[in-house]
Write a structure and sequence with these properties.
single chain, 78 residues, mainly alpha, elongated
């Protein structure tokens, strides 16, 4: 198991209060709530990056006339 690294963070009072309430409601530590939030933020960032890449490659394919899977197979075969 990885060793925890202690960090000090600052939160606005309302956000700190909300995080503490969430921890109490969910039976977690404040650290657990912050870890969950960071994991969710990371996952959302990766999802956003993937959508941007898909959009980019979709535009590139359309520019080359690749509109269907059949078109793609033809292009890949050369």
């Amino acid at each position: 198991m990885a060793t925890a690294v202690k960090k000090t963070i600052s939160l606005p009072p309302d956000l700190a209060r909300e995080a503490e309430e969430m921890a109490a409601e969910e039976g977690k530590t404040l650290s657990g709530i912050i870890q969950d939030a960071l994991r969710i933020a990371r996952r959302e960032r990766l999802r956003k990056d993937l959508k941007e890449m898909q959009g980019y490659w979709s535009r590139k394919a359309k520019e080359r006339g690749i509109l269907t899977e059949k078109d793609l197979r033809k292009c890949l075969r050369g």
